[in-house]
Write a structure and sequence with these properties.
The structure holds 2 protein chains of 2 kinds.
Chain A lengths: L3 E10 L7 E11 L4 E5 L6 H8 L7 E6 L2 E2 L7 H7 E4 L12 H11 L4 H14 L16 H13 L5 E5 L7 H18 L2 E5 L3 H7 L2 E6 L2 E7 H5 L2 H6 L6 H11 L11 H14 L5
Parallel strand pairs in A: 3-8, 3-9, 6-7, 7-8
Antiparallel strand pairs in A: 1-2, 1-4, 4-5, 9-10
Chain B lengths: L4 E10 L10 E9 L3 E5 L6 H6 L9 E6 L2 E2 L6 H7 E4 L12 H10 L5 H14 L15 H13 L5 E5 L7 H18 L2 E6 L2 H4 L4 E6 L2 E6 L1 H5 L2 H6 L6 H12 L10 H16 L1
Parallel strand pairs in B: 3-8, 3-9, 6-7, 7-8
Antiparallel strand pairs in B: 1-2, 1-4, 4-5, 9-10
Classes of the chains: A alpha/beta, B alpha/beta.
């Protein structure tokens, strides 16, 4: 059984008013346990609206969201408990810190789950360590921290609930390359250690190509493409038409292939690119 | 100060009051030529935003001097002249829009100059056309996309007719489409109107558009040169927490295997050309 199943999901904003607008239209897909999914699409394509349905923050106008085969809006479902299982990290989550110490902020989720004090404590320390929040910071006010530290604290607060599905809406927006790589490696570690499914909303094709197993492409509220990284990024032209790009190295390879070089098109990272060209160099006797 | 300099910084040192960790800027010497397009790179905390804020007297030096077209920014009597010459755009477009309608937003600053009505109207029109937002003049500002809002914010600056615009990560919160819109606008302002541009960014890809790149690290200038010069120093950039575009990284790695390849390509076109050239030569 799929961990998450989204079935004919439709969401209409402001139904019955002059502002009525279809935000999500007939979207269907599944996410398997332990799958890492990238969600791309340009602003207004419905990415954020879509992910807010997955932990019950928004209710579908029609269609359903199923977690382990069970409709989350079925009568008798505990939506609050669902939110412990499906963790959602919003854009700029650092604006949502509110407690007077970092420790209390990270413990807010586990405490609401009704866990025992010792379990809360071990989860806070575990999540802090996982997100690179130094132990010395736990007693500090979150408002004294740098932007990058704040964001790690906010993410630790969600991870401390140990959700089976982790959804992150542009977790690296506004960070420098080092900060971005750090956050993505924390997410990757959580994904691996807990075997959790992860959904990553991102504008960076390079990040998506490096991190995820499969990709969802949203366009004007509809699911335009769904497949492995390889399948999706090989559709250079379709992505371009949607105002999206492929990773830069993929674009370089598209040019090389078009010029007649015998190279694979499915190259998304610099490492893959170097390897492919190295092989061709050896074949052509340029390299021993 | 040279005649052709827009901004000149001499031994600029700055620290925030009460900050124990030492100076944010340490004896920075930098000249920005009139009409040039300069990108300032650096990781978070490198001092690049602090540097930018000295260019229109949002911050004043603790040590050293900053001159804008020869005017000392610390001269309180001439503050207005400094601000009129150098406009500033910030990261978050939502924080920069003050009015509900696009043209009213752009008119806000010139209206405060007490200009004749026709002059204000003329400036608003010119500014909105310069950023390709004229057809949106009667739209509600808050319903625009991020890239459109950012361009309206830039139009608001242009309406003040500055000689220089400083942009502090103008694309950080935008999607790829919005990013391209803003970057094209900035480039056009520089090329067609000769406005000096100083653009702070994390993205090396964006910095390739500039004529000159200044890399900041721990409050000092770590590198200063053309994009090609700066990009050939891949390892140093990585050590500074920065990242080169994939096309540059690809050819840089291949150059290590095969020195016949160049070590300073800056975009995908150049990368493809260099690799094609190698295989053509190799076939002979």
């Amino acid at each position: 059984m799929s961990r998450l199943e989204v079935s004919s999901l439709t969401h209409v904003y402001s139904v019955g008013t002059p502002f009525e607008r279809m935000a999500i239209e007939d979207v269907t897909f599944t996410v398997e346990p332990g799958e890492y999914v990238g969600i791309i699409g340009h602003t207004g394509s419905g990415k954020s609206t879509l992910v807010q349905h997955l932990n019950g923050l928004m209710k579908p106008t029609s269609g359903a969201v199923l977690l382990d085969g069970k409709n989350i809006w079925e009568r008798g479902t505990d939506i609050r408990a669902l939110r412990f299982r499906v963790g959602l990290v919003f854009q700029y989550p650092e604006y949502q810190l509110f407690e007077d110490t970092v420790y209390r902020d990270i413990s807010f989720g586990p405490r609401n789950m009704g866990l025992e004090e010792s379990e809360i404590d071990s989860r806070v320390r575990w999540a802090a360590e996982l997100c690179g929040v130094d132990e010395s910071l736990l007693s500090r006010s979150p408002f004294e921290l740098s932007g990058g530290q704040k964001r790690r604290v906010a993410i630790a607060g969600v991870l401390a609930m140990q959700p089976e599905i982790l959804i992150m809406d542009e977790p690296t927006a506004g960070l420098d390359p080092r900060g971005r790589d750090e956050i993505l490696s924390h997410v990757q570690r959580y994904h691996k250690e807990r075997g959790a499914s992860v959904l990553l909303v991102s504008h960076s094709m390079e990040d998506v190509a490096r991190q995820v197993d499969s990709v969802l492409v949203m366009q004007r509220g509809r699911l335009a493409l769904r497949g492995s990284v390889r399948e999706v990024f090989s559709k250079t032209e379709e992505l371009k038409e949607m105002g999206l790009s492929v990773p830069q190295v993929t674009a370089v390879f598209a040019r090389l292939c078009a010029a007649g070089l015998d190279l694979p098109r499915e190259v998304f990272t610099v490492e893959q690119g170097v390897e492919a060209i190295r092989k061709l160099m050896i074949e052509r006797g340029i390299l021993a | 100060m040279k005649e052709q300099d827009m901004v000149e910084m001499i031994d600029l040192t700055f620290s925030y009051p009460g900050e124990k960790d030492g100076a944010v800027l340490k004896e920075v010497n930098l000249e920005i030529e009139k009409g040039s397009f300069v990108a300032v790179l650096g990781h978070n905390g490198s001092g690049k935003s602090t540097l930018a804020k000295h260019m229109n007297a949002v911050l004043l030096p603790v040590g050293g001097k900053v001159y804008v077209e020869g005017i000392d920014t610390a001269d309180a009597d001439r503050l207005f002249e400094v601000r009129q010459r150098v406009g500033m755009a910030f990261q978050n477009p939502d924080n920069q829009i003050v009015a509900t309608i696009v043209e009213e937003d752009v008119a806000f600053a010139p209206e405060n100059l007490n200009l004749p009505r026709e002059e204000t109207a003329h400036r608003v029109e010119t500014a909105l056309k310069a950023v390709d937002m004229w057809e949106y003049r009667e739209h509600s500002a808050h319903q625009l996309s991020g890239g459109q809002k950012q361009r309206v914010a830039i139009a608001g600056i242009i309406a003040m007719m500055p000689h220089c615009i400083v942009l502090d990560e103008p694309t950080a919160m935008l999607d790829p489409l919005g990013r391209t819109e803003v970057l094209n606008t900035v480039k056009k302002l520089n090329e067609e109107q000769g406005i000096t541009i100083v653009m702070i960014t994390h993205y090396m890809k964006e910095a390739t558009m500039a004529q000159r790149i200044v890399v900041m690290d721990r409050g000092r200038i770590a590198m200063d040169g053309t994009p090609r010069e700066v990009f050939s120093r891949v390892e140093e950039l990585k050590d500074l927490g920065l990242e080169v575009p994939q096309a540059t990284a690809l050819v840089h790695e291949l150059h290590k295997l095969c020195p016949a390849l160049p070590d300073n390509v800056i975009d995908e076109q150049e990368a493809a050309d260099a690799i094609l050239h190698l295989f053509k030569e190799g076939a002979v």
